[in-house]
Amino acid sequence: MSTEAAAGGVPRRALLKLSGEALLGERKYGIDPEIARRIAGEAAEAHREGTQVAIVVGGGNIFRGLAAASRGMDRATADYMGMLATVMNGLALQDALEQAGAPTRVMSAIAMNEICEPYIKRRAVRHLEKGRVVVMVAGTGNPYFTTDTAATLRAVEIGAEVILKATRVDGVYDKDPLKHGDAVRFLEIDYSDVLSRNLRVLDASAVAMCRDNRMPIVVFNLNVRGNIMRMTMGEPIGTLIH
C-alpha cells in the first residue's frame, strides 16, 4: 500500500491490532461483553463495506507473560500462558463478530483443533478472499515475541495493506499524553524516528519489520466510536507511521 493510500485511500485488506486491555472496558480483569460487541460491530461494518479484515488480539486483560516473568516465573512458561489468554479473547471476538453478522474464523499459532483452526497462511488468505473475518491468536506461537510482532508478521504474510494499531490515545505523541499536557501529536512520522525517539507505540522489532517490508501503520484511538470504519473508508485519522 502506498503512503498516499495509507493516508487517505480505502484498504482492500487491513490488519487490526487489538490489545487485550481494549476488551476490559471499566473492568480490572477479563472481558467486557459490551466492549467486545462494540469493537466487533465496527469491524463487521468495515467488512460489509468491502475491506478484508484480519485481527490480531493480545491477552493482557487476562494474563501478561512479561509481568509474570518479572515476578520470577520462567519467561517461556509465562509467555505460553499469555498466548492461551489471547485464544480466549479471540473466541470472545468471534462470538461477537458472528452476532454482528460477520462470518469469522479463529486461527491459532498453537494447535488446538477442537476450538480453532491452525494458522496456515494460505488458508488465512483464502478465508479473507471468501469474505470471512480472520482472528489470529496465540501470537507467533513462540515465547519472547509480543503480539505487536505477531501482528506485523501476519500482516506481511497475508499481504495486508496497512496495520491499524488500536490504542487509548489518538495517535503517536512525542511523550505520553496521559502524563504530559504539552505532548505534541504527529500526523505522520517515519519508522526510524519512532525507533530513534524510543516512542514505544509498538515494539522496536515490530517497527523494524514494518520498515523493512514497507508496511504502513496507523495508530488511532479505539475508544472513539466509528474510528475503525472511518479509517477503512479512507478518512485521515490518528498518526501514520511510514
Keywords:
242 residues, alpha/beta, Carbamate kinase, nine-stranded mixed beta sheet, two-stranded antiparallel ribbon, 18% strand
What would the average pLDDT be, to the nearest integer?
Answer: 92
Helix and strand element order: HEHEHHEEHEHEEEEHHEHE
The main sheet orders its strands as 4-3-5-2-1-6-10-11-9
CATH architecture: 3-Layer(aba) Sandwich
The CATH C-level class name: Alpha Beta
Overall geometry comes to globular
Provide the β-strand percentage band: 15-25%
Brief account:
The protein is of the alpha/beta class and 242 residues long.
Structural summary, described in words:
Helix 2 (33-48) packs across helix 4 (75-99) and helix 6 (147-158) packs parallel to helix 8. This protein has a single domain, classed as Carbamate kinase. The protein is of the alpha/beta class. The strands form two sheets. A nine-stranded mixed beta sheet has the order 4-3-5-2-1-6-10-11-9, sandwiched between helices. Helix 2 links the parallel strand 1 (13-18) and strand 2 (52-57). 39% of the residues lie in helices and 18% in strands. It is built from nine helices and eleven strands. The model is unreliable at 1-5 (pLDDT under 50).
SSE topology:
Elements: H1 3-8, E1 13-18, H2 33-48, E2 52-57, H3 65-70, H4 75-99, E3 104-108, E4 117-118, H5 121-129, E5 133-137, H6 147-158, E6 162-167, E7 172-173, E8 185-186, E9 188-189, H7 191-196, H8 204-212, E10 217-221, H9 227-232, E11 239-241
Helix pairs in contact: 2-4, 6-8
